[in-house]
Write a structure and sequence with these properties.
By secondary structure, this protein is an all-alpha fold. It has a single domain, classed as ABC transporter involved in vitamin B12 uptake, BtuC (Orthogonal Bundle). It is built from 16 helices and four strands. The strands form two sheets. It has a two-stranded antiparallel ribbon with strand order 1-4. Strands 2-3 form a two-stranded antiparallel ribbon. A hairpin with a 2-residue loop joins β2 and β3.
Length: 335
């Protein structure tokens, strides 16, 4: 027998209630933002503009992917912006040493160095947090000052610039070149996100991250090595920072003590807007990428319109993270 209209309505309602709105909300917000942007300025919806927006969001998007693991495990890393400045400074200084004559081999060696240094910085944050039994907020607040101070010392308060034009010319395609019509940074975002999604959703480690973020005591009694899971999350964060640096250096070829300022706020905002709970226990990698795009689109709309000054972008981003937290709490109560 066919269902009555009333029964069909109840089934549709139950399906709607069963949907995880915290996972869907970022993508709905992204679509609404695209519609608003198109209404504000017809050029906003052009392929060229959207491609540029996606390319510019690469740094925060990649860093935010790493932050998704840290936040999902119940921790927080406030040092990522300072870490970017420190790793980039060391990378450029290494390239300026010219210990390898071949510019392409030098660039590869510098990338490897940046990756190792980023992982080491993440390891330091994780080691002090887990072994020292100190709150990650305090630890990463301290290392934020350390990394920023080291950068200031290395640059002597100025800028560190890539000196070899040959290296600059060889390195620029990493950021400015295109592959199959899309800029390289977009492909790197996609690759990093796919790898992160596989780790988060398809591996035992990903399940352990969510379990540790949900309840550490229960996870520990279940036989999960909580400290190892948290440590690995910080190391993943450091590697993501290194990947962002590898993309950042060819764009400007220079860094200073102000590089990466407030990037930690943008990364955390992207994670929260993407639907990951700030208290941990739920990691949404694709939502994080959506959140990073949303932040960049907001800035782009402000630039193309005259309604709000672009200098208020930081204030807008702060308001977005507060609104996102209120929405998350509202959806949690309904769940």
């Amino acid at each position: 027998m066919s269902q009555t209209p009333n029964a069909e309505g109840k089934v549709a309602k139950s399906r709607l209630e069963g949907m995880d709105m915290r996972a869907i909300a970022p993508f709905i917000a992204l679509v609404l933002l695209l519609i608003i942007g198109a209404m504000v300025n017809p050029n906003f919806i052009s392929v060229t503009n959207l491609t540029n927006v996606a390319t510019r969001s690469a740094f925060i998007a990649i860093i935010a992917v790493g932050a998704t693991f840290v936040i999902s495990s119940g921790d927080l890393d406030l040092s990522v912006g300072s870490m970017v400045a420190f790793v980039a400074s060391v990378m450029i200084l290494f390239m300026n040493s010219n210990i390898i004559e071949n510019p392409y081999l030098m660039i590869v060696a510098a990338m490897v160095l940046a990756s190792i240094l980023g992982a080491a910085c993440g390891f330091l944050n994780g080691a002090v947090t887990t072994w020292g039994r100190i709150e990650p907020f305090i630890v990463t607040l301290g290392t934020m000052g350390i990394y920023r101070g080291l950068t200031t010392w290395l640059s002597q308060g100025g800028a560190i610039t890539l000196s070899s034009m040959e290296q600059q010319d060889a390195y620029r395609p990493v950021y400015f070149a295109r592959f199959l019509g899309l800029p390289i940074p977009i492909w790197i975002i996609l690759a990093v996100t796919i790898v992160a999604a596989v780790i988060m959703y398809r591996t035992r480690y990903g399940r352990h991250v969510v379990a540790v973020g949900s309840n550490r005591d229960v996870a520990r009694y279940s036989g999960i090595n909580v400290d190892r899971v948290r440590m690995a999350a910080f190391i993943i964060q450091g590697i993501c920072v290194a990947i962002a640096v590898i993309l950042y250096v060819p764009r400007l070829g220079s860094t200073s003590a102000t590089t990466g300022t407030m990037w930690e706020l943008q990364a955390i905002t992207a994670v929260v807007v993407g639907g990951t709970a700030l208290k941990g226990g739920a990691g949404r990698v694709w939502g994080t990428i959506c959140g990073a795009f949303i932040l960049e689109l907001v800035g782009n709309i402000m630039l193309l319109s005259s309604f709000i000054s672009e200098y208020l972008l930081g204030a807008i981003q702060g308001a977005i993270i507060i609104i996102a937290m209120l929405v998350q709490r509202s959806l949690s109560r309904k769940a």
